[in-house]
Specification:
The chain is α/β, with parallel strands linked by helices. Helix content is 20%, strand content 23%.
Length: 86
């Protein structure tokens, strides 16, 4: 399992079995994402990139418009939508 760091998560403690990665640019991030067997995250740019790369995923989402859901490979994606989630 790989955790992709962001500036605000650099100090977050992770379980020992989770590797930490800090891609230096979009190309490095895309390469790392393309090698993933599963994407887990929110409805975001990285989610759409994973979807375009064909990586299956799970999206944790609040009351977003369904038009923002993963566009391609919909059969490979699960959306956990909770209308009360901010």
């Amino acid at each position: 399992m790989i955790w992709i760091d962001r500036p605000e998560t650099v100090g977050v403690s992770l379980p020992p079995q989770v590797q930490r990665a800090s891609p230096k640019d979009l190309g490095a991030f895309t390469t790392l994402l393309a090698s993933a067997s599963l994407f887990v995250g929110n409805n975001s740019g990285p989610m759409h990139l994973a979807n375009a790369l064909g990586v299956p995923g799970v999206v944790i989402s609040g009351p977003t418009v369904r038009g923002w859901d993963p566009y391609w490979h919909r059969d490979r994606w699960t959306i956990l939508r909770h209308p009360g989630l901010p």
